[in-house]
Amino acid sequence: MIGPRSATVALDGETSDESGDLARRVVKLERINAALMAHVERTMDQQGGAYALFQTAIMLEGRVRSRTEELTSLMKSLETSNTALQAAKDEAETANRSKTRFLAAASHDLLQPLNAARLSLSALADLAPGHEAQTIAGQVERGLQTIEDLIKALIDISKLDAGAVRPVIKPVRLADLVAHIESSFRPFAERKGLRLLVRAGDVVVATDLVLMQRILQNLVSNAVRYTESGGVLIGVRRRGGQCRIDVIDTGRGIPEEERALVFEEFFRGTAEGEDAGGPGLGLGLSIVQRMATALGHPVQLHSRVGRGTRMSVEIPLAGTAPDVLVHPTPVATTLTGARVLVIENDASTAEALERLLRGWDAEVESHRALAGVMDSLRAGMPRPDVMIIDFHLSDGACGLDVVDHLRQARGWITPVIVTTADYGVEVGRRVVEAQAELMLKPVKPAQLRALLSYLLA
């Protein structure tokens, strides 16, 4: 039998157990609540970071859009600028071509009266043997020469800058080319007391004969002009698959500060006296640089003040031999009594040339075109000993057509000198292919007489 005390103890035990269980449940709930709160906080943090990233992305997108708009605007401006530049370039090229055509046309009209003046001046000098008359004639001749050189140089530069010069690369034997340059400049060198030496072996190079000849002429002319004592050497050296032509002088040399300027237009050094044809115009090396660039032949300058200068041109060797030109057989030995046929388009030039040739005791027959020659042939004109023919005749005719007709129809293998005020490279090639001699206007009387004597001897 359970008494009241025992019942009380039982109830207290149950109550104690229930309190402990409740406490444990409270603690568990607190832990769960803490876990839930931590989860919520972490979730809030994550949501806050994503939002921040979202905001950053929006900001970057705005910047990218702004930069893209700026870049698009810049590209449009650049495109507009390129269009304007291309238009300006086309306009400049058109103006350059127009300038070249104008100079080519104007040069012919300028050189024709200059040619007549020089021929008439030479004939006048022959008629006036007095010292004073010869002095005046020499002064006029030097003035005409300066005008001629300037016109020629300006035409050359204009054509080279406009790209009108198209080199024709062929095998060229340097020994022949250098020998021609030597014979042309030896009188100038000897007049100054200089030695002109040549060291050229049997080397065949690939180049344009006409342009290469002009390059060497300008280099040797400069070397003689700016050398007061010693001499000038034209040397040719093989270097692997290349050949180097050196023009070396013992002149005063070029100061270092001037070496970058010597290839610019109208830059002139300080030469003593009027040698090598008079004071330079300062265009020779500028033309050399342009021609060498057109040919792809590098030009190098080495100089020491007080010791001299070396100008070098690199040219590739040719794989084949050059064509052999067959020259006509000379038929006379002197200008006295020599029959000369002149076909000249310009009346004043023809009259001056006739007067000059007759002053040299030659027999002259002159015509303006092929029609006059044909009339004279039907009248029994004998074969001339030499012909002097203008390249450009009336109505677009070419003097070489007259040469072809006389060779084919009459079988005349007669020496021919072609004169022209056209300095185009193509004209020179056609004259060479016709096996004729080219003489550019204004014709130098002494040079003409020497060439006539050579052809007739």
Automatic annotation (TrEMBL):
**Histidine kinase domain: residues covered:** 105-319
Q: Quote the SUPFAM superfamilies the UniProt record gives.
A: ATPase domain of HSP90 chaperone/DNA topoisomerase II/histidine kinase, CheY-like, Homodimeric domain of signal transducing histidine kinase
- Name one matching Pfam family: HATPase_c
Q: Which domain of life is it from?
A: Bacteria
> What is the catalytic activity of this protein?
ATP + protein L-histidine = ADP + protein N-phospho-L-histidine
Annotated positions of the 4-aspartylphosphate modification: 390
Q: Does the keyword Transferase apply?
A: yes
Q: Would you indicate the residue range of the signal peptide?
A: none
SMART domains, per the entry: HATPase_c, HisKA, REC
Task: Look up keyword Transcription and say if it applies.
Answer: no
E.C. designation(s): 2.7.13.3
Listed InterPro entries: CheY-like_superfamily (IPR011006), HATPase_C_sf (IPR036890), HATPase_dom (IPR003594), His_kinase_dom (IPR005467), HisK_dim/P_dom (IPR003661), HisK_dim/P_sf (IPR036097), Sig_transdc_His_kin-like_C (IPR004358), Sig_transdc_resp-reg_receiver (IPR001789)
Q: Response regulatory domain location, by residue?
A: 339-456
Keywords, A to Z, come to: Kinase, Phosphoprotein, Transferase
Q: What is this protein called?
A: histidine kinase
